[in-house]
Amino acid sequence: MDSNNPSSKEWKLIEKTMMQLGTEQRRSRRWGVFFKMLTFGYLFVLLFVMADGLGDKQLSDSESYTALVDLRGVIAASEEASADFLVTGLRAAFEAEGSKAVILRINSPGGSPVQSGYVYDEIKRLRVLYPDIPLYAVISDIGASGAYYIAAAADQIYADKASLVGSIGVVASGFGFVNTMEKLGVERRLYTSGNHKAFLDPFSEEKESEVQFWNSVLNKTHEQFIAKVKDGRGDRLHIDEDTFSGLIWNGEQALEKGFVDGLGSAGYVAREIVGEEEIVDFTPQPDPFERFTKTLGMAAGKTMASVLNIGNFSMR
After folding, report:
1. Rounded Cα–Cα distance for residues 308 and 131 (Å)
2. 151, 143 in Cβ contact below 8 A?
3. Which residue from 15, 109, 198, 267 has the highest number of Cβ atoms inside 10 Å of its Cβ?
4. Dihedral over alpha carbons 51, 53, 59, 60 (to 10 degrees)
5. Cβ-contact 133, 101 below 8 angstroms
6. In which element (H, E) is residue 248 found?
7. Cα–chain-centroid distance for residue 124?
8. pLDDT value, residue 314
């Protein structure tokens, strides 16, 4: 076909236009599929969260049962294992008419001494208000540091033979970048009001007086921790030079040292110790809308990856 022929040029223009239309149609279909899948995922997650939320509100029809509250993860104000969450669950568990006993199931490496102290004190208060409802702490994988701080408030503590228990100590850590700054030729400029306002600054030389002061703060907090454990465990605790050193033991060793009263799971305690095998979970759940938006975000990400074929690369 002659390229100088006007008909040839018109044909090429038509061909190019049709190809562009085809490309646009394919792109439109791809995004159409994406939004349909996103809508489907949105509705599916919404129904799941609503059903899950309804399930959280259902209690046992039995006249008596063992109440359960879970302590999971790091103990901190912004986490699921915050004092507010735990105290809310414990209060509900003790106040429920059918509660014969309360189990605090622990799987935590510890965390904030402040949050742990709040929960410890609340357990002691609830035990005075409800003297006929005992509280058992049950450690699963780990109950260390601040988590054991809380467990010490229980009437009895149980763990698995391989659980990690103890770590009665206080730690603070950081880094020093003074030599790094010098090697890079970076000048540190720090402006403060107050002689010690910038103490522990990682880009400044340590001062011995400030190190001693900080150690005194840690030692005092450690003493508070020790006092709570002694008060909670009493004569059951076999104290030696390692007891409050920060070491951690397995369940069998912890039993020998008096850190725990027996070996067993939450189910074992409910069945054999409490005498009420049925367990009702009083662990507070995050806000349903918050859970929904988080789950929706994950679902949207997976849907987009599927539509755009992202994340399917693998090496085997």
Report:
1. 61
2. yes
3. 109
4. 30
5. yes
6. strand 248-250
7. 24
8. 27
Domain ranges of the chain: 6-54+291-307, 61-173+204-277
Q: Is the pLDDT of residue 114 over 80?
A: yes
Tens digit of pLDDT for each residue in 11-43? 777 777 777 777 777 777 766 666 666 665 655
- Pull the structure tokens for residue 113: 């001494």
Q: Which CATH architecture has domain 61-173+204-277?
A: Alpha-Beta Complex (3.90)
Predicted local distance difference test score (pLDDT) of residue 191: 84
pLDDT score for 233: 95
- Amino acid at the residue 137: A
d(CA 113, CA 116): 5
pLDDT 10s digits, 274-295: 999 999 999 998 765 555 554 5
Distance CA 41, CA 22 (A): 29
* DSSP bridge pairs for 68: 103, 281
- CB contact at 8 A, 117 and 77: no
Single-letter code of the amino acid located at 194: G
The pLDDT of residue 37 is 65
> Measured between alpha carbons, how far is residue 173 from residues 145, 189, 315 in Å?
15, 23, 39
Cα(174)–Cα(201) distance, rounded to whole angstroms?
Answer: 9
Decide: pTM greater than 0.90: no
pLDDT of the residue at 192: 85
